[in-house]
Amino acid sequence: MILFNDLRPQHQRMRQEILDVLARVVDSGWFILGKQVEAFEHEFADYCSARFGIGVGSGTEALHLGLLACGVQPGDEVITVAFTAVPTVTAITLAGATPVFVDIDPVTFTMDPSQVENRIGPRTKVILPVHLYGHPADLDPLLAIARRHGLRILEDAAQAHGARYRGRPIGSIGDLTAFSFYPTKNLGACGDAGLVTTNDPELADRLRLLRNYGQRNRYLHEVPGANSRLDELQAAVLRAKLPKLDYWNAERRKRAERYRTMLQTVGLPGEQSWAHHVWHLYVIRSLHRDALQQHLTARGISTLIHYPIPVHLQPAYRHLGVQPGTLPNTERLAREILSLPLYPELPLDQVAYIAEQVNAFESDRE
Ligand SMILES: *Cc1c(COP(=O)(O)O)cnc(C)c1O
Q: Could you read off the pLDDT of 232-261 as tens digits, one per residue?
């Protein structure tokens, strides 16, 4: 069976290095908000060309606290997409706000900027685009809209470590950018972890309070806040891994390129001229998606669908009353997409085998 993803080769190669850094943290006896977190915050912010990095407990928490730092209050609205991982929207509801969904551009799978302006209302506070699958959303028009209406841009970059927009690193562009280090992301911890980048010292200060019970100094609490901290063990692992991120992204790119040259008839994911894609996922489109998935399973190839049910059609969000048919690109693509195996250590002969099996299925259909 060809696995969809396999985290073992990466960790086998780094096994001793990871065990050594973990041992050093254990020996230090310091586990929360210490030297490892501080160093990783600087190193990751530098990697993104951002001024500040604030480590938090997960990607969801990076988004949630990012919204609170923007001053989002219960009843406020946040404009986002339904074509995303559900936690993008979990973060909005955690902040007490209401998600307002706009459709996606069917080429980039990301927020269609032309849909945003007429969804802005008196309670809109934030625009939250998602750099889905590792391809950046088209940020310039979103930044212009935000400026015109006095809104903040919070980016969901959980799948886009190392991506670039018009040459600028993701993490250095909007007001705030949220990253996840869930183990399967392009940069993954050995557990849950997240981080927010920003160039704004006030937002950075607010985030540092929010993640730590709203505490300014010991026992002086300025805002209600939360407990959501990146811990020393995860930060130490992430510091060991960060220098390898560009190499891993290049290995992903090599496999995406191999798919592109070999796959013949299906809808292939593209890369806009203004984008540097980091290929968190390789997502093709087929009008016979379910049959294609079965065909591949029968030939020993695991695939997944990211994501089969758009957020506005999930039971948890039915109360928002967004009717089926409201987001046509989102709903159509959810029926056509299929994620093929892609990870930095995926053997290239397996990529070739997968592409051959997809081609065989599609040519039988013609
Ligand atoms: C993984 C992911 C999240 C959530 O990150 P966690 O660290 O699992 O909380 C949010 N948004 C997107 C697009 C993701 O892929």
A: 999 999 999 999 999 999 999 999 999 999
Q: Is 126 helix (H, G, I), strand (E, B) or coil?
A: strand
Is residue 133 in contact with ligand 1, taking CB distance under 6 Å?
Answer: no
Helix, strand or coil for residue 52? strand
Q: Is 259 in a helix, a strand, or coil? A: helix
Number of Cβ atoms within 10 Å of the Cβ of 87: 22
**Cα maximum dimension of the chain:** 69
Looking at residue 172, its pLDDT comes to: 98
Tokens of 209: 């309070």
Is residue 238 within 8 A of residue 25, CB to CB? The reply is: no
59 CB near ligand 1 (under 6 Å) = yes
Q: Per-residue b/e over 204-233, b at no fewer than 16 CB within 10 Å?
A: bbbbbbbbbebbeeeeeeeeebbebbbbbb
Residue with the smallest CA separation from ligand 1 atom 5 is 59
Threshold 0.90, pTM exceeds: yes
Q: Check the CA dihedral 236-241-245-246 and report its sign.
A: positive
DSSP letter assigned to residue 133: G
Distance 59 CA to ligand 1 centre (A): 5
- CA-to-CA dists, residue 141 to 20, 57, 59, 83, angstroms: 46, 31, 25, 19
The band of 190, judged by pLDDT with boundaries at 50, 70 and 90, is: very high
- Residue 253 Cα to ligand 1 middle (Å): 21
DSSP string covering 310-361, please?
A: -GGGSGGGGGG---TTSSHHHHHHHHHEEEEP--TT--HHHHHHHHHHHHHH
- Residues 229/32, Cβ–Cβ less than 8 Å: yes
Give the number of other Cβ atoms within 10 Å of residue 102's Cβ.
Answer: 22
* Alpha helix segments (H runs only) across the chain: 8-13, 15-28, 35-47, 59-69, 87-94, 139-149, 201-210, 232-241, 245-262, 289-298, 328-336, 348-365
Judge contact between 162 and 249, C-beta under 8 A. yes
